[in-house]
Amino acid sequence: MQIEEIKKVANINKGKNLKYCILTMGCQLNENDSEKLCGMIEQMQYTKTQELENADLIIFNTCCVRENAEDKLFGKLGEVKKYKEKRGTIIAIGGCMMQEKHIVEKLKQSYSFFDIVFGTHTLHQFPADLYKILSSKKQIEDILDIDGEIIEGLPIKREDKIKASVSIMNGCNNFCSYCIVPYVRGRERSRLPKDIIEEVHNLAKQGYKEIMLLGQNVNSYLRAEKEKQISFEEYDGVNSFATLLRALNKIEGIERIRFISPHPKDFTDDVIEAIRDCNKVCKLIHLPLQSGSTNILKAMNRKYTKEQYLTLVEKMKKQIPQVTFSTDIIVGFPGEEENDFEDTLDVVKKVNFEQVYMFIYSRRVGTPGDRMENQIPEEMKHKRFDRLKKLVEEQIAIKNKEYVGKEQSILVEGKSKTNENMLTGRTDSNKVVVIEGKNNLIGKMLPVKIVSEHMWYLKGKVEE
Ligand code: SAH
Ligand code: SF4
Ligand code: F3S
User: Fold this and answer.
1) Is the pLDDT confidence value at 464 over 80?
2) How many whole angstroms separate alpha carbon 377 and alpha carbon 291?
3) pLDDT for the residue 285
4) What average pLDDT does the segment 46-54 reach?
5) Which atom of ligand 1 is nearest to the CA of 174?
6) Tell me, what's the pLDDT at 1?
7) Number of C-alpha atoms within 13 angstroms, CB side, residue 210?
8) Ligand 1 midpoint to CA 359 (Å)
9) What are the phi and psi torsion angles at 344 (to 5°)?
10) Is residue 66 lining ligand 1, measured as CB closer than 6 Å?
11) Share of the chain above pLDDT 70, in %
12) Band of residue 455 on the pLDDT scale cut at 50, 70, 90
């Protein structure tokens, strides 16, 4: 870790009352990386501001999973150029997009006012990069093509006091043909069991109640290490994702454990049994479908069929009482015909998901999907997206009604953002529940009775 560099920058900055602003795009892995960046930056004597114009240091943590994520960066860069000109703000751009060569080229051509670009494998070197800029003012490119090591012990400044995310592995080996992630995050590398367990123990000590385990394919935790015969030390019997769940379930103080994302092809029986047996592991399982058509799944390189997906869901419904599902779906993948799309609708009807994250297929440079000839016209993609959305919303409306009158256990997360006098929490199935109650309920698990439903939240009453 860069303790020396952190100290050097802190010395330069001391007493200057400097501010930083960070903009994070993309998934929870990026959010988690940003919390680590904030941890380092605050040790270097910057305080956080939400206003770009007041910042002395602006950091973009970027995402490239879909085109609209990329557009967001370019839009914002146009805006920050004037702050750079006015007050010499340091502009640092990091994250997944920076691992794409054509993007870094574009930045150099058209947005050359940036100070630092850094990639996903060099996050921990940010203090050194910043020191170089402060002392030499020369533009810095700190990007590695090879997979970086997992760096433990980075300071972290967490946004939330009740829920914390814990990354358990980096990278992805699956190469789904639409997806850019394996190219920008590298191959799968798992953290050591001991490091994860100690982190969760610490979180429990600090009062955290819910942890979200993060990885691109969490149920292949430690698999790459086993395949490559890289020795790793077991700790508390942990040598797989299932045993990790069991070990974390024993940690006192932690009330809930969630994880994203598992891959259907790797959902082994030991994981199903661990979810069933561990009382703290939430029974909402995020099981990315992507498409309900076996042909499209094959073209996507997902390695399961429509039937195998449905069989897996049935098996879990039988073995795990109260299980619910959420999913990701892409519409308009190359070659998707009407009957393929109807297979997707069919799976949605059969599984009856609690939540569906829907995406319009976006061509990503360098992926096999981008090279396929049978691309779907934009208008067709949008029409299918709207049809899927309509079905999902109808299903959710029916599901919400079923909650009314039932008792649910919620973890109270904080004050409601829209109403000061109300609190919000979530059910095991991740539904937002708004209740009346005093602030001392924040952080507590409570039984509540659901009294009414709305599209995006439920209203509950605390059981006396
Ligand atoms: N590793 C995770 C998450 C990957 S990114 C998983 O496998 O579930 C999150 C979601 O973005 C994916 O599940 C997929 O539905 C969507 N996605 C990825 N690439 C995409 C693309 N090129 N176009 C549209 N959606 C995409
Ligand atoms: Fe992308 Fe597939 Fe890996 Fe998920 S499993 S990150 S969708 S390649
Ligand atoms: Fe985006 Fe990178 Fe996550 S591409 S979805 S931020 S892993």
Assistant:
1) no
2) 18
3) 98
4) 96
5) 7
6) 59
7) 22
8) 8
9) -65, -45
10) yes
11) 100
12) confident
Q: Give the Cα separation of 158 and 79 in Å (integer).
A: 27
d(CA 79, CA 66): 22
**Residue count of the chain:** 464
Per the omega criterion (within 30 degrees of 0), is the bond before 409 cis? no
Percent of the chain with pLDDT strictly greater than 90: 92
Residue with tokens 């004050």: 415
**Residue 327 forms beta bridges with which residues?**
356
Q: Which amino acid is at 124?
A: H
Token pair of 258 as six digits:
């969630």
Other CB atoms within 10 A of residue 122 CB: 19
Q: Concatenated DSSP letters for 186-231?
A: -S-EEPPHHHHHHHHHHHHHTT--EEEEE-TTGGGTTHHHHHTT--
Q: How far is it, in rounded angstroms, from Cα 115 to Cα 93?
A: 8
Chain segment 69-123, per-residue pLDDT in tens = 888 999 999 999 999 999 999 999 999 999 999 999 999 999 999 999 999 999 9
Contact 182 CB / ligand 2 (< 6 Å): yes
Ligand 2 centroid, distance to 195 Cα (angstroms): 25
Q: Over the range 413-441, which residues count as b (16 or more CB within 10 Å of their CB) and which as e?
A: beebeeeeeebbbbbbbebbbbbebeeeb
Please work out whether the CB of residue 220 comes within 6 Å of at least one atom of ligand 2. Answer: no
